[in-house]
Fold these 4 entries.
Entry 1:
Amino acid sequence: MVIDDSNTIRRSAEIFLKQGGHSVLLAEDGFDALAKLSDFKPDLVFCDILMPRLDGYQTCAIIKRNAEYAAVPVIMLSSKDGLFDKARGRMVGSQDYLTKPFTKDQLLQAVLQHQPNP
């Protein structure tokens, strides 16, 4: 699942992930993502930090508080590469952090690193 309020980022991530052989679910903000979560049960979530209504930290915290999704890796996406942002992401339960703009290789490497073991 890719959660980002930027259509460009969502589409780029979708193209890169599909080229890597992955199925992709898109959400434009935290509320949209939470509504889709139970229907689709993603294996991995990429979540933008700066979004209207419900930011990435809040979205990640809500996902992690739900026992059904607590084990789903969440990777934060941000245009800021600050130590504080990375630490705050870890505090709400994210497993990793990618700085935007990301490359296809960075995105696919993150998927490989965090995909559940069969």
Entry 2:
Amino acid sequence: MPLKEKIGEMLKRLLAMLLIVVALGLQGCVSPVTGLKSYVDSTDGYQFLYPNGWLPVKVNRDNGVDVVFHDIIEQTENVSVVINPVPDGKQLIDLGSPGEVGYQIGKNAIAPPGSGREAELINAEAREYGDKTYYTLEYTVKVNGQERHNLASVAVSRGKLYTFNASTPEDRWEKMRDLLKQSVNSFSVY
């Protein structure tokens, strides 16, 4: 094989190896939670991931709602954080089991008397992350004849009860389930 052909073959191999290295390097830069953006509130001490393309909503903080993001098209699809005080020294477990806390949140926050809403707690479980306990709660909710699906993550930190809620119309639940579960599981307090 003439020298010119050998150099050409070596350059082709080198280029192929370089492309493989670049491809592997780029693959390492891809986030395992694609489709989500990060939100950090260092003042109130929490963070979470929310779907790309969702926008913040101006909220009245008097009722405990700290932040809300909603889908630009399906505006009733949203995530929110509500912060309420808890008695001094109380931890999440002191407020009850996941089922008990889930029932109370459903009855008093998601579907309070006179709201016209009905909430059914369909799953409640505890998980540990770092030194904190979180309750993950799942509800079906009826509002004005429409069905919705809600996921929540609840934690206590710095004398406050933090409730992260993700909500979508029931007909979009199958499409949004994995993204909303990632979002709810990303919620953490510090």
Entry 3:
Amino acid sequence: MAITNEQKKAYRAIGHTLNPIVTVASNGLTEGVIDELNRALDDHELIKIKVSVGDREVKKAVIEEILRITGAEMPQQIGNTALLLRRNPKANPKLSNLKR
């Protein structure tokens, strides 16, 4: 499902106050990083991550791989920071960053 511009704007507003939950660094996408991404997306639905892996092309490839593996969408990317969204119908309202 594609995100509309209005939804992107709302998600960016929520994401502005978030701190990066997961950092992908020189070790790349390890199994532990992927597990933590999936756990964070299940719990919080909207998360901010930091990708510090080198030049733009490598960073773009890593983010695309993250989106493919997790099934998440990316409402925003600025520099090394990306905002990821994956809705969870069974999310705990106390943990979720999205209003219910």
Entry 4:
Amino acid sequence: MYSNILVPIAFEEGRDSSGALDIAEALLAPGGSITALHVIEEVPSYASTYVDEAMMTEARKSVVEALAVKLGSHSTVTPKVVTGHSGRTILEEAESMGADLIVIASHRPGLQDYFLGSTAARVVRHAKCCVHVIR
């Protein structure tokens, strides 16, 4: 059983976030906590000058609302939205919160994943805690 679980949530098609949350709840020790993390990719600096701050604030608000909808009946899960590079930010958040397990959904790898590496693969390779991958 794990006491501090991080579940990265992606809004892409084919990602089974509800399955990852179900597994996290099954592996959670009594009195433990689950954090659902969504990482908003940073806007590149060359494009940030063209993006209105109000638009960014509204987009972030929409993401927070979408994450709440995605959590659905998982009322004991704490949602968290951050900005950064997904693979690196997931690892940083796991370390800063003292996570002892990351439950991450993954898709079946395509050709591009063999050259670039997927987020799940990066998390598995570099995490300092246990990682449970859902396919």
